[in-house]
Design goal:
about 650 residues, GMP Synthetase, Chain A, domain 3, eight-stranded mixed sheet, seven-stranded mixed sheet, about 30% helix, globular, binds adenosine-5'-triphosphate, binds magnesium ion
Amino acid sequence: MSDDAAKTYPPSAEMAANAHVNAERYAQMYQASMDDPDGFWREQAARVDWIKPFSQVKDVDFTLGNVHINWYADGSLNVSANCVDRHLETRADQTAIIWEPDSPDEDAKHISYRELHSQTCKMANILRDMGVGKGDRVIIYMPMIPEAAYAMLACARIGAIHSIVFAGFSPDALAARVNGSEAKVVITADYAPRGGRATPLKTNADQALLHCSDSVKLLVVKRTGGQTTWVDGRDFDYNALAADAADTCEPEEMNAEDPLFILYTSGSTGQPKGVVHSTGGYLVYAAMTHEITFDYHEGDIYWCTADVGWVTGHSYIVYGPLANGATTLMFEGVPTYPDASRFWQVCEKHKVNQFYTAPTAIRALMGQGNDFVTKCDLSSIKVLGTVGEPINPEAWNWYNDVVGGGRCPIVDTWWQTETGGHLMTPLPGAHDMKPGAAMKPFFGIKPVVLEPTTAEELTANPAEGVLCIADSWPGQMRTVWGDHERFEKTYFADYPGYYFTGDGCKRDADGDYWITGRVDDVINVSGHRMGTAEVESALVAHAKVAEAAVVGYPHEIKGQGIYCYVTLMGGEEPSEELRLELRNWVRTEIGPIASPDLIQWAPGLPKTRSGKIMRRILRKIAENDYGALGDTSTLADPSVVDDLIENRMNR
Ligand code: ATP
Ligand code: MG
């Protein structure tokens, strides 16, 4: 993946002519955001309706021991009024949410802004009656159904802080989060259908609540009507209560810096962090990035396939799109049910204009062959997006050629739970794209590349090092819930004066940014530093390899050796010849220095529920130190770990 060899894809003339932001406008706006950040963000704040206008734009300090981040601090607003009420005058009958159920045999729902308003108000009134008030915490443990969005907006309406726990998480993980946030209420559903199977969510919640305070109440939404047990006095029947609840509810006036939600990071690199986001700055940033990154225009149908359990679902299914008065599609199911054509069938059925998914889904679908895609009419799609991890060029090209038909720009959005919204991405009408590159900073974002050990800022191009951000932006997290010290230590201690992202990156000769993976995933082989993502990309480019994960392990001569976990394509058999072939393949693709030392055949890789490979676990196994694997509660399938331990190569 040498930079000069990377092909660039400029935006089409049509896209450049019609997009909100073209190259010239990007340059001018970016410059303005650097020259006068206060003026720039004062202007952007007009994207939301304020109850009381703010006087000061920003008050930020990144100095260890005194870290604080405030935006629009003396202004007040309500997020649910911004996402719902303010649209009623102009678009009450427009669809706010298209809901596509798990099974294609069940009908989709179209929820108008008017309906969204009355449902949000009903849920808000029910929560108030259950004793929830401003500043109280509410856990949302729900399938991808419209009620999950009502629940988020209802909390925002009454000033309660929500914390969503992905429906795939275990009772233990749920209990930990109920207790960690001292929540008053858990909102759940009877069952969560997904991929043709239904998880008994209510039963999981029952189990979790055995480990929580007796005062925690449960609000239960009916999804399937399947059987559940009922605890009188503790459990509340949402559907019965909603039938009688009033459908108006005065929104609470919130300070811009009041917390809107707590959300735990994915846990790829360690114990998940309880990220706290604000009300005013977060909403401004989510709305702005949603409109500009996806080039969303009035009337477009926009689909982000994430779950609301992840930050992507918060900013780019619910808050950003609804603040913009968009039509946002919410999908309950999985990409491969009933078959690998489902995503594309949904795009065709609802005439989706912007489609946003993750590399893990793209790779999985790529492995199923092109027919699943090409049999669907995808001509409505204008912009494609990806998020979650670096996308290898192989997958990027498939997404571009087969899904996008070479017509659609791909926004490779780099950001984090912590950042609230996109920090780096090509913009569809403004930038050239390079497969696998995050390209350019968003407005107001000042990325810096630091030499990892000296913390010296590398200003010339090309440059490679750790990625930090030099100044704040409105969507930045404000603290770790209940642990401000951990917040300061994690993000502001290693590189004083900067926000440390934990990611490595390189800036190429053109000044474009590439995320190379986690800083922890950089290995040092005989004095050569290299990102493990590069070796993974080379392996995945081999026709017989479906997926690969690469980590370092202690090596007597080289310092660190290269340990590869390889999942083969269906039908391929592992053999010594293939091992040799892969080793030679990587040597020719990258160079002898990247030659794998150990290759382990892996039937499956340990992944977070959001589909990210947990390399910290693979590192432990490769180091032959698998006794303490750390927090595995966010793992999708813990059983794959046993197989990997049993067949480890470094004994
Ligand atoms: P934890 O912080 O608990 O270890 P996590 O970092 O996986 O978990 P998230 O906030 O969900 O939690 O993920 C953010 C990370 O995902 C980024 O720091 C980056 O490593 C990776 N990432 C996200 N989008 C991209 C992208 N477009 N390109 C490359 N990497 C990405
Ligand atoms: Mg992280």
